[in-house]
Amino acid sequence: MEILIDFTALGLLYIFKFFKKWKSQGRDKLIVNTLIYIYISFVLFFTIMPIITSLPFVFDHPYVPMNFNAFDDVFNSRGDFIRQVVLNVIMMIPFGFLLPITNKKINFKKIILYTFLFSLCIELLQPLINGVRSADVTDLITNTLGGIIGYVFNLIFKPIITKINK
């Protein structure tokens, strides 16, 4: 139920803020921007939701600082480290693939920067919004790698994407 409130807010934000703007830019922009909006909504779902109902309780739990030991779980074989690494890479592939379609000025350096910043925001918000979750530098690295892989896929499929957009 709490997550439904977040998705309702995201839906209303889309309808009243973004839909008209993107629609006025053409069908292609509307489709790609809507896809990335849906993608980001699901990233929020898997990483930090519920958000709105958690806000009153943000300061009711200790903020656990980020783990700065890269791949600590991997090297010490703790938990389901392989699954976590793979899922973090996979999670950001669509971001690296779709972002250059929404903005032609996105290059390799920018995709690294934007993917890193998107991941950093998620990592810093996780322990703040949800006292059970923690931030990890390994997630930053693997998420950024996923964005890079998505960007490479975009480059590979660019001729097809260009053909579809015409």
SSE layout and pairing:
Elements: H1 2-24, H2 27-47, H3 72-75, H4 81-102, H5 108-129, H6 137-165
Helix pairs in contact: 1-2, 2-4, 4-6, 5-6
Short description, anyone?
By secondary structure, the chain is mostly helical. It contains 6 helices and no strands.
Description:
This protein is mostly helical and 166 residues long. It has one domain (2-165). Helices cover 73% and strands 0% of the residues. The chain has 6 helices and no strands. The longest helix has 29 residues, at 137-165. The mean pLDDT is 91.
Defining key terms:
mainly alpha
Quote the distance from N terminus to C terminus: 42 Å
- pLDDT below 50 for ≥5 consecutive residues: which ranges? none
Q: What kind of sheet is the major sheet?
A: none
Measured on Cα atoms, how large is the radius of gyration? 17 Å
Helix/strand order: HHHHHH
Mean pLDDT: 91
Q: Please, how many domains?
A: 1
Strand content: under 5%
